[in-house]
């Protein structure tokens, strides 16, 4: 009986993580360059279950077989498909027409990568992100407006190895390949590849699973109440 509560608790934690991920995708449907993430789950390893109710005196080990105690998050996958392009006509907006990421220099000197080309200009006429981070050129220096457009675009053979740093930025321990002559569209932005319809379907499925687990929890709680209050009288 108590084990059932442990299993349900694990299921609720898993569903909460799925709901948080869906909420994050929904919140960024309008964020340029955002790449949605999907969580994967798997069943826990089976465990052997037994009691001691075998034999004429009901005190011998009785193997009941194997039982799965719930599910767990097995990993996450970032959707690296390109989102649709939207024309903005702003000269500081850029969209990549091919695979790869803009290279960005963070305040700590680390290089980050993003598909969000919603840039601006600082006092030095350099391209920066909306957070003020420098956009790098092919020479690994801040890209300057007015010069030949030479943003550093980096391609990763396996984008799933990229680590999300939040705000559409990613980092990587593996060096990517600099793309020569990348296709870059001025006055366009790549929109989020998260879609409201898909996320709503995932949200409804998660909600139904919440409801199903809540019913099991209510039934388990009622069974335990009867076991304590009624069977305990004998």
Entry summary:
By secondary structure, the chain is an alpha+beta fold. Helix content is 26%, strand content 30%.
What labels would you give this structure?
30% strand, alpha+beta, 26% helix, 234 residues, 5-stranded antiparallel sheet, two-stranded antiparallel sheet
Describe the model:
With 234 residues, the protein is of the alpha+beta class. The protein contains two helices and 17 strands. The protein has helices at residues 2-27, 196-229; strands spanning 37-43, 47-54, 60-67, 71-78, 85-87, 94-96, 101-105, 111-114, 120-121, 127-128, 134-135, 153-155, 163-166, 169-171, 177-178, 184-186, 188-190. The strands form seven sheets. Strands 7, 8, 11, 12 and 15 form a five-stranded antiparallel β-sheet that branches. Strands 1-4 form a two-stranded antiparallel ribbon. A two-stranded antiparallel ribbon has the order 2-3. A hairpin with a 5-residue loop joins strand 2 and strand 3 (60-67). The longest helix has 34 residues, at 196-229. It starts with a helix and ends in a 5-residue tail after the last helix. The mean pLDDT is 90.
